[in-house]
């Protein structure tokens, strides 16, 4: 009985203790929760439906009530989660230029380009999981308003018995400076991820010797 109740409480804590990227650091400053990041309505739960529009910026996340922050092209930004990421899997960062304001943009269309992939390190296939992910906005992109999207794909429960989990959040940026390069390839979300992608279907506990992060190639200036 004792063991049974401990087992239940571990299950319960695993169900509730996922993680969510709530805070953006830009211009050297860590900002309040959901100030520049669209607030989602599913607490810290992941998205698992590869065909859902929720894959863009998470469930219930719209530009309403979210501020847009001015950042220079080429400058450093970070996403910080409420707790350190702990399910094994890759982290990717995408951007999409808004046709109007970032706040009004729903991220539809083949608009998303990837600016960062963090995969496992071999030999061993170890994942460097963190609470804060820091990277630079590309220096060559045109000034304008963008969505900046982080995605951690948790593949700790291997497909097809388990369903990979997408932990996603979007920040709203007004990029200043920059250049005139249109980065690509650009993909639509949903549509960019498939249950046939090796990086989605792989069993990381069995002969795990190489890994391809799902989605397009990382764009370079
Ligand atoms: C590992 O490499 C092989 C050979 O190129 C490829 O077929 C496979 O999909 C790769 N696995 C992953 C998980 O990327
Ligand atoms: Cu979890």
From TrEMBL:
Reactions the enzyme catalyzes: [(1->4)-beta-D-glucosyl]n+m + reduced acceptor + O2 = 4-dehydro-beta-D-glucosyl-[(1->4)-beta-D-glucosyl]n-1 + [(1->4)-beta-D-glucosyl]m + acceptor + H2O
Entry's Gene Ontology BP terms: cellulose catabolic process
Keywords, in A-Z order: Carbohydrate metabolism, Cellulose degradation, Disulfide bond, Glycoprotein, Hydrolase, Polysaccharide degradation, Secreted, Signal
Record localization: Secreted
Span of the signal peptide: 1-17
Record-annotated Auxiliary Activity family 9 catalytic domain positions: 18-209
Enzyme category, top tier: oxidoreductase
Cofactor(s) the record lists: Cu(2+)
GO molecular function: cellulase activity; cellulose binding
Superkingdom, taxonomy of origin: Eukaryota
EC nos: 1.14.99.56
Xref: Pfam families: AA9 (PF03443)
Major site of localization recorded for this protein: secreted
Gene Ontology, cellular component aspect: extracellular region
Its job: Lytic polysaccharide monooxygenase (LMPO) that depolymerizes crystalline and amorphous polysaccharides via the oxidation of scissile alpha- or beta-(1-4)-glycosidic bonds, yielding C1 and/or C4 oxidation products. Catalysis by LPMOs requires the reduction of the active-site copper from Cu(II) to Cu(I) by a reducing agent and H(2)O(2) or O(2) as a cosubstrate.
Domain notes: Has a modular structure: an endo-beta-1,4-glucanase catalytic module at the N-terminus, a linker rich in serines and threonines, and a C-terminal carbohydrate-binding module (CBM).
Protein's recorded name: AA9 family lytic polysaccharide monooxygenase
Taxonomic lineage of the native organism: Eukaryota, Fungi, Dikarya, Ascomycota, Pezizomycotina
């Amino acid at each position: 009985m004792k063991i049974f109740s401990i087992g239940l409480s571990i299950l319960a804590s695993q169900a509730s203790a996922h993680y969510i990227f709530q805070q953006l650091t830009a211009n050297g400053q860590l900002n309040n929760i959901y100030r520049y990041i669209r607030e989602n309505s599913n607490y810290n739960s992941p998205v698992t439906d590869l065909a859902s529009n929720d894959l863009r910026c998470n469930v219930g996340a719209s530009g309403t009530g979210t501020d847009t922050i001015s950042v220079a092209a080429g400058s450093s930004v970070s996403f910080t989660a409420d707790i350190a990421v702990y399910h094994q899997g890759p982290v990717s960062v995408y951007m999409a230029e808004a046709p109007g304001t970032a706040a009004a943009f729903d991220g539809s269309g083949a608009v998303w380009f990837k600016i960062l992939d963090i995969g496992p390190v071999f030999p061993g296939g170890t994942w460097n999981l963190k609470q804060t992910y820091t990277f630079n906005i590309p220096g060559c992109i045109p000034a304008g308003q963008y969505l900046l999207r982080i995605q951690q794909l948790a593949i700790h429960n291997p497909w097809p018995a388990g369903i990979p989990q997408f932990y996603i959040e979007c920040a709203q940026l007004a990029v200043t400076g920059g250049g005139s390069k249109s980065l690509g390839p650009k993909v639509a979300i949903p549509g960019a991820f498939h249950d046939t992608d090796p990086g989605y279907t792989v069993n990381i506990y069995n002969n795990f010797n190489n890994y391809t992060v799902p989605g397009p190639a990382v764009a370079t200036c």
